[in-house]
Records
---
Amino acid sequence: MAIKVAILGYGTVGEGVYKGIQNHQEQLIEKLGDAVEVAGILVRDPLKKRDVQPGTFITTRFEEILAIPGLHAVFEAIVGKEPGYTYLSQCIEKGCHVITANKVLFAKYGNELLKKSKQHGVHIGYEATTAGAVPIIRTLQELLKVNRVTRIQGILNGTSNFILTEMRANRLSFGEALKLAQDNGYAEANPENDVEGKDAACKLKILCQLAFGCTPDWEEVEVEGIAAITSGEVQKAEAEGFRYKHIADIRAEGGKLKASVKPIAVSSAHPLFSVEGVDNAITLETSLAGNLTLQGAGAGKFPTASAMLEDFSAILEKSLRTKIHLLSARVPV
Ligand SMILES: NC(=O)c1ccc[n+]([C@@H]2O[C@H](COP(=O)([O-])OP(=O)(O)OC[C@H]3O[C@@H](n4cnc5c(N)ncnc54)[C@H](OP(=O)(O)O)[C@@H]3O)[C@@H](O)[C@H]2O)c1
């Protein structure tokens, strides 16, 4: 029997998930033992043309998604805290696994959703909320079995990194580099979240909660974007062997967590010095494994869908193992 899933939102990410499922059925069947069927898609605008197979169920009514019989998992790719939080809460209460790309929602309500998912015996995948295809959440979950993470430094916003790279390598002004980012589809028409550091701060919150199990007082955390940097400062840093990088940083120091999100001029010895263009990267300082750096596409249709589908596959395998374990525990000897 097919594994039934639904997709909430059919924009860049939702469409990537849909197409990823259609184009990877062979791999999914091999891993999960059954085909994956997209049993419903939730959108806001019923009139927009969608590139989906004929007969695909598309609705603007969430109740119709929730009513799909035998729904295993829901991929959430809509924007903002609400209605996503309400929708995901209801999916979990119904016994569906959820996989989300929505960082704004997860930075605010991640803890509540994780608690709720435990109560209802389902799993939440949130790899796609932070650094796109870069498997940082999974890496932290694996590492934390024994290691202690003492510091995380990340380039978590591809738009900012692209702008800083263009300002340095091609001597563009901030305005010219921002326009180029917009022309290439890397920046929104309203780029505030990206260039003011808010997007990176959201992702740092998610990483911090996972790595340290608590967070600093975010009201006191310095969050500064790249909008005030001049090309003169970038060129001066370059001449002295430094590069400006927008770095989200959290570290355990003297029993306290210290965090900041701001542009920093780093030397060539820094692990994030060579991370250029729209790439994201995260460097971890750990107690046993030493320093680890992961780098890759931080956003985009298929990199983000990749993170969500890998989460989905891992969650289904995990829940299958749990079922087998429970069944074998019941077999009389
Ligand atoms: N784009 C990326 O590369 C990327 C990477 C990582 C994470 N994310 C996160 O993934 C999420 C989706 O991003 P996106 O770029 O795919 O956004 P998008 O292209 O703007 O698509 C958003 C989708 O959500 C639907 N939607 C919005 N509000 C809704 C509502 N109230 N009820 C039902 N559907 C609603 C929209 O419906 P209509 O089509 O009908 O308008 C649209 O299909 C966001 O939370 C974003 O932060 C994005």
---
Amino acid sequence: MTKARVYMSAKREFTCRVLETGELVLAKALGNLLKKGDSIVVGDYVDISLIEETGEYIINSVDDRKNEIFRILIREAKRKVTASNVDLLIILSSVSKPQYKRGIIDRFLVRACQWGILPVVVFNKMDQYDPEEFDINFEAERLEGLGAKCFEISAKDTAYKAKYLAEGFEQLQALVKDKTSIFVGQSGVGKSKTITALAQGDVVLKTQEVGRAGKGSHTTTWSEIVNCHNFEVIDSPGIRSFSLDDIDPDDLLSLFPDLEEIAVNCQFNNCTHEEGVKGCRFWSSELDPETEEGALVHSRLESYMRIHEEICQTPFWQKQNKYS
Ligand SMILES: Nc1nc2c(ncn2[C@@H]2O[C@H](COP(=O)(O)OP(=O)(O)OP(=O)(O)O)[C@@H](O)[C@H]2O)c(=O)[nH]1
Ligand SMILES: [Mg+2]
Ligand SMILES: [Zn+2]
């Protein structure tokens, strides 16, 4: 029996990397392993063995997963898993062109929480940072308070030394080493450029090649792990999508654990946390938005409210069509 990791999946065949040798082999899965649909996904650790007569590898079993990247299929009330065993969700943000957007980071923090992956926020394009535009120190402090490590880099100029935050490019490079990461963020923030810089020019991302034709449009239709120098990147359709429509509005607060902790102190269980609602903890004098702590909490509440409104707006029948 040989331990391997699934790098790419295509129907019933899986490209697996043998852990010990690094060799890529094609393996077929036994029927009973495929019954559930998601039973083998990219990122899984599997036991494979060589069938001497045919010279083919087969997958015998799949190890328990550390975490799963999934979407909820509303009509079927089940999870569709697309990848597993991811170490880091790297949320890339540009500090200029496109401008920094706090709301987008909060959206991806929701996913990190849902999937159980450690979030990391990278402020890129620091060579173009203008302190007049936004305060990077405030943003980083806010994010670190939420458990996301923050980095300050310029993918274009990797010699750029962090001036505002403690960690820069070299520390990011050390963090991703030997890990499996997912890179997300708006189009144009520098995901491709950052991955290439981290890989020290050692890799050509397949998805980048494919994506060239229509800049900004991702044509990735399969899931795969891309091996980059000394780290790995998972690319999968849907992962980078901004839509949070698959999340039940009633579950959203649990994906903002910092707010959930506060909401337990609201007077009424069904509190909507809107301004002026009786007994709402968020609008109590302790969390006055004019105070430092209050401002932070209210910036999160604002993200929560915006996403909540958005996912409540999609009528149920439309959700059914979209995800079935
Ligand atoms: N000045 C500056 N430009 C950068 C930096 N990083 C990336 N860019 C530029 O920003 C543009 C977008 O970078 P990409 O790496 O293609 O962005 P992306 O996030 O992969 O975008 P999509 O593939 O569309 O999602 C390119 O023209 C890069 O050269 C940086 O640190 N500084
Ligand atoms: Mg790209
Ligand atoms: Zn409330």
